[in-house]
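Run Ferritin-like domain-containing protein through structure prediction, thanks.
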Amino acid sequence: MATQEKTLSDAFYETLKDIYFAEKQILKALRKSVRAAHDPELKEAFETHATETAHHVERLNEVFGIIGKAARGKTCEATQGILAEMEEDLEDFGSTGAADAVLIGGAQAIEHYEISRYGTLKAWAANLGLADAEKLLGETLEEEKRTDALLSEIAGRESNPKAQRQTA
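Sure, done. The structure for Ferritin-like domain-containing protein is below.
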């Protein structure tokens, strides 16, 4: 039985479904992170990114429309793994001085995954001649990069020194 050859359009659609699922899961995790964070600046960063993430989902809905497909997700094992690890870390460190540092570490793991996905999708959109999708994906990519940079700044300035002051 012959199978149909897969195309870049197929890969684009499958990856789009992956990040759509991921963004919805990340939105839930960000809401938990807001509640778990101790540092006011970190709480604010999570709140801001939760608002942005809701916009990311809206943009993804637009991209699905551009390619003429219904918006739907497919289970993203990578995101589920990172989020499960974050949950475990929060259980272990949530009541310690290292809680915010651990939250930042998990959030940055998510950001790096998203940056790689959006970078790939943006490049593929360009290759497929989907200029409107490329623009939308590029906007999200830049927001993800800014969030990652902000988390690095907060980690270096506030959370990690607090964590280091406590001894085992």
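Residues 131-165 form the longest helix (35 residues).
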